[in-house]
UniProtKB/TrEMBL annotation:
Native source species: Phytoactinopolyspora mesophila
InterPro entries in alphabetical order: Galactokinase, Galactokinase_CS, GalKase_N, GHMP_kinase_C_dom, GHMP_kinase_C_sf, GHMP_kinase_N_dom, GHMP_knse_ATP-bd_CS, Mevalonate/galactokinase
Keyword Endoplasmic reticulum: no
Domain GHMP kinase N-terminal: from-to ranges: 77-163
Assigned EC number: 2.7.1.6
Domain of life: Bacteria
GO biological process, one term: galactose metabolic process
Matching SUPFAM superfamilies: GHMP Kinase, C-terminal domain, Ribosomal protein S5 domain 2-like
Key words of the record: ATP-binding, Carbohydrate metabolism, Cytoplasm, Galactose metabolism, Kinase, Magnesium, Metal-binding, Nucleotide-binding, Transferase
Residue intervals of the GHMP kinase C-terminal domain: 265-344
Occurrences of domain Galactokinase N-terminal (ranges): 5-40
Protein name, UniProt field: Galactokinase
Entry's Gene Ontology cellular component terms: cytosol
Length: 367
């Protein structure tokens, strides 16, 4: 009998905590209802044959012993998972693999992590590996870093693995842990809008690399392995030790953003969801002015959402395009969406896509 397993994993949005993960800091993502499934059937040989229903993604075939460079394009995310599993010493069989998804790609909702995690949980069950969710998240990150060649942190995979209905996920990058924090938006009469600006990612990869490098160099100048190590000290003391203005602003964002995540978690634990709005907006201002990763579409969307009565709004994801989140009273949700549409029309931008992010369950597999 041929054994088949369906792995399913969600996309995510990040509520707050941006550009902190690769600095050993904190982030607060949530899994969204949009998911990717990977249906995996074991084969008797060492080959993997993978197809996706997404348009423009041609089928790929590779060996389970694949190495970085063998497969490029979308198949690299899948091949990367096989590679990462084998690098970690796990035996995985050849397989036929079919991917289906309603996570939009390239919108900052982490379709890449959803794909990796769907494949990971499916292979985990198929091969009887019984890996911990956090272990799988780190393997997904390795696939993306070492095989696809994108130097991203583990936030996306952690969110996809650890999501829970009615909760956000507190990710501590230094400790590699993820913890659910209650965030029942519905009960509070609130809606978290995601507004995909449709702005093309401009220089996202090179700029992301540059931000990472600046932070790493600043940590080195401060004599610590990562900026996390100086989080407890007063920010002014730390900033005074840096002689470069750009580095100072980048570090100020990272330290401030970690602080904002902690404050958000405290408010959520106290059931004060409405009150996190100001922290979301402060995060955006810091990403715009100090970290310099926004583009006009992101800034216009945030400003329009706030003008229409959003409690808080910020870009989400790496920036240079992608989406914003806006926390709004549910009664005002459509008004806020309309106002962003109008503002985009005034600026001559492509019409945005507006939808609702509902904190949802993480990855799982069924045999
Ligand atoms: P994001 O993760 O923000 O959506 P990325 O650029 O990191 O954007 O990842 C998008 C890429 O992931 C796509 O270009 C594609 O290669 C791959 N991918 C994601 N979802 C699918 C899918 N359902 N089928 C095939 N490839 C996918
Ligand atoms: Mg991605």
């Amino acid at each position: 009998m041929t054994k088949s397993v369906v792995g399913s994993a969600p996309g995510r949005v990040n509520l707050i905590g941006e550009h902190t993960d690769y600095n050993g800091g904190f982030a607060l993502p949530l899994a969204i209802p949009q998911r990717t499934t990977a249906t995996v059937t074991a084969r008797n040989d060492d080959l993997v044959s993978a197809s996706s229903r997404a348009s423009g993604m041609d089928p790929v075939e590779f060996s389970v012993n694949t190495a970085p460079g063998d497969v490029t394009g979308w198949g690299a995310y899948v091949a990367g998972v096989f590679w990462a599993l084998r690098q970690a010493g796990h035996e995985v069989p050849g397989a036929n693999l079919r991917v289906d998804s309603d996570v939009p790609t390239g919108a900052g909702l982490s379709s890449s992590a959803a794909l990796e995690c769907a494949v990971l949980v499916a292979l985990d069950t198929l091969a009887g590996l019984e890996l911990e969710p956090s272990t799988m998240a780190l393997l997904g990150q390795q696939a993306e870093n070492g095989y696809v060649g994108a130097p991203t942190g583990a936030l996306d995979q952690m969110a996809s693995m650890h999501g829970r209905d009615g909760h956000v996920v507190l990710f501590d990058a230094a400790r590699g842990t993820a913890e659910p924090v209650p965030c029942d938006l519905d009960a509070a009469g609130l809606t978290l809008l995601v507004i995909d600006t449709q702005a093309p990612h401009r220089h996202a990869d090179s700029e992301y690399g540059a931000r990472r490098q600046t932070c790493e160099a600043a940590a080195e100048a401060l004599g610590v392995p990562s900026l996390r190590e100086v989080q407890q000290e007063p920010a002014e003391t730390i900033l005074a030790k840096l002689d470069d203005d750009v580095a100072r602003r980048r570090v100020r964002h990272v330290l401030g953003e970690n602080q904002r995540v902690s404050e958000t978690v405290e408010l959520l634990r106290a059931g004060r969801i409405r009150d996190i709005g100001a922290l979301l907006t402060a995060s955006h201002v810091s990403l715009r002015d100090d970290y310099e990763v926004t583009v006009p579409e992101l800034d216009v969307a945030v400003d329009a959402a706030l003008e229409a009565g959003a409690l808080g709004a910020r870009m989400t994801g790496g920036g240079f395009g992608g989406s914003i989140v806006a926390l709004v009273d549910t009664a005002r949700a459509s008004l806020v969406g309309d106002e962003v549409h109008r503002a985009f029309a005034r600026h001559g931008f492509t019409a945005p896509h507006v939808f609702t992010a509902i904190p949802s369950a993480g990855a799982s597999a069924t045999a």
